[in-house]
Amino acid sequence: MQQYREIKARHQGSILFFRMGDFYETFEDDAVLASRVLGLTLTSRNNGGASDVPLAGVPVKAVNEYVRRLVARGYRVAICEQVEDPRLAKGIVRREVIETVTPGAAFSDDLLDCTRNNFLCAVRPAPGALAVAAADVSTGELRLATVPSGDADALLARLAPREVLLPKGGETTQWRAMDGALVTEREAWEFDPAMARDDLARQYGVLSLDGLGIGAEDEAALGAAGALLRYLRELQPGGVPHLARPIVERAGGAMPLDEMTRRNLELVESLRPGVDNDRAGTLLGVLDRTQTPMGTRLLRQWILAPLTRREDIDMRLDAVAATAGDAIGRATLREALDGVRDVERLASKAAAGRATPRELRALGDSLGRLPAVHGALERVIGTRDSGLGTRVPDESRVPSPESRLTVIAAAWDDCGELCAEVTRALVERPPLQLGDESTIATGVDTELDDLRALRDGGKDAIAEIQAAERERTGIQSLKVGYNKVFGYFIEISNAHRERVPDDYQRRQTLTNGERYVTPDLKAYEEKVLGAAERIEARERELFESLRACVGREIARLQRVAGALAELDVLAALAEVAEREGYVRPTLTDGYDLEIVAGRHPVVERMMAREKFIPNDVTLTQDARLVILTGPNMAGKSTILRQVGLVVLMAQMGSFVPASRATIGLVDRLFTRVGASDNLVRGQSTFMVEMTETSAILNTATARSLVLLDEIGRGTSTYDGVSIAWSVSEHLHDHVGCKTIFATHYHELVQLAEELPAVRNFTVAVREVGDQVLFLHRLVPGGADRSYGIEVGRLAGLPAPVIARAKEVLALLEGDAATMAESLGRVPAAGKRSRRRAPPADQLALFASAPPAAAPNVVPPPPHPVVEALRATDPNHVTPMQALELLARLRAQIHADA
Ligand SMILES: Nc1ncnc2c1ncn2[C@@H]1O[C@H](COP(=O)(O)OP(=O)(O)OP(=O)(O)O)[C@@H](O)[C@H]1O
Q1: By its UniProt entry, which CDD domains does this protein fall under (predicted)?
Q2: Does domain 2-101 have CATH number 3.40.1170.10?
Q3: Which fold is adopted by the domain 586-853?
């Protein structure tokens, strides 16, 4: 317990798994917690102290699963091992924590999702900015970024860290609310840039950080990286030698996408609650035709960080075009990639000394695919014939020298000798663990081969002993067996007990027989077992040296993994483009956006192909703000999102679902859907909507694309229309961005008369009898009604409710006509006095209630009983009159019924 408490004192923030023989034990508070979370039996033990100590343990064999469950719940687990052989230890065996597993620092496949990065982020607030260092220890990736405070959320939403490190004493509530991320506070001095400078230089063996691309402007990010490294070293006392050189992300390279935009466009996760891992309804789900886990992870990164420089995007588009245009080349490339495993994570495991024999072989085999991948790549580029027939030169699709394919090919590395070394040294199917079966192939090491011959010779000799002893004793059922406790033995059933020779020594009695040994048998046993022990030791030695040798090549392997991942993504994008009929978008530095016959990539997949109705959308300087009205269910949200998705896909380097698309580069994309609730963060729905809207108004530029869906809906109609109206005016006059505003406030249609660059569009429906036919076609003009009641009927509202709703609607519409007369027009304030505010004849629909609290629905006229009650003053009736009144009212109700 003394040893336990000493170690525990150094690992206060973790649950300590204390190795004791075949178990990891937890004690005291850890035991209480572990038993609760893991459902373990809590026992207690008097370990020589004055009182009993609570205790709960898990078997060593099952430890991974228990660690996984704890870490998934956001706990840290410190693994404390026996670090000397208990048989040789004097006194208490030495123990040390060899690793601390946390959500952000996990290697085990059980804890990782192969389709996404597992980032640990250290964040350091700087004046007006936020610096972030993000590491994925499973892939060895390290990224540094500094972004203006306004883009902090977007950056973190993209990285989606599993764990966040913060300097102590800062504001933490914002972080605590981050979905599922564990917040770890560290001392503020650990974020010091000067200290980090030395630390990083040591980690990468460089004299100056300039060589790593880290400049003076990265001070804060450097500080964050220092804290990150320090924390990682604490968790992994063995160090993190596999951490690749940092990638410094510079502003302007990628488009910041805030969390709401990412969610509303359903980029990588579906909006449907409870189906968070369902990628079927997401852009990632549609585009993901990658063959490798590295490809899937990179595709996700590309989706979440569309590019903003035309040349960068065209390099990707050139590559997709070339791959899409060569069906055979593409198929060959994808087939070659098919056998490639997660080189990135396997290489990291090798460098961290964690790869198992099977994993190291998988890495070797994956490297073996490199020449095939390279061959396919060269074919697509057009420098080599695949042997499947001469390619007809096609000028239009030969990638430009700047294409990503050409860049990747120019830096190609087959890793031939590394692959040869691994595949030569390891058997074809090595075991999961060393020692279970042979790991090192025959012919690799003479010492090992000799030992194996000795062991196998011993085994043969033992088989011969069985034959000889049967002969000598005449007992045909005599057999030589083996178990771990007694080693080799001769087993004779009771029926032949009399014939057992004198030189047999009895070792074990069974119900129907006895087990014996002979000096001969023991001699061979020693040879066999001794050899087996030495074989294991030698195999371990050879394997570890091979693994270390691979590990030293980590930087090179990471480059190879990067190239494979990128080829995989480019080939996947080409494959989707071909299958789904996407076209290459034209990107320009101009303003205009023109999408001809655009489709929603996800919605169209959910229906038969011809069923989805394509639509054209054009936004230019002179027609930059579209007010999109139309009935419920007509397809407004679909069009809105499809425009966002087409632009995003184009800027990530993908082809797009349209027959033609010209896209003036967008610097930011905002998508807001009104009344999206954020109950998790405990904010009012409307408050969230307004906070988001204000973020757009403050950050959008003329180059942005703003997509608003029913903003203003979370409040009363008057307030809502007014806000929607003035937000539109502001975007039109002051921001000048491309905007689409989908709304049920038909009042907004009037904006087109006031503002020169506003256009009205509606989604057409046709009325057939009292039914509504949804045409899903975008046409110029505004809608005058919402057909909400028809949609209610489709949704199964009871017939009487529908009938009554129609009555109320007729009543309201009648009222509106008369009320319009009585309501004066509101003069606009200040310089905008030339403009009208929302015309009152539209608003008058709701005029029967006082404007300050305009309800959405006007109540039907009160019942006579209510009128009678209202007319009664309880202070001026006698008890008798009250009773009479009560009886009368009751009778009236009965009469009405
Ligand atoms: N272009 C289209 N072609 C075929 N079906 C479509 C199209 N657009 C939308 N739909 C179908 O109509 C459904 C409703 O579309 P959407 O949610 O975009 O309507 P909406 O006008 O935004 O409705 P509301 O105003 O009620 O929110 C979609 O789920 C889809 O199934």
Answers
A1: ABC_MutS1
A2: yes
A3: Rossmann fold (3.40.50)
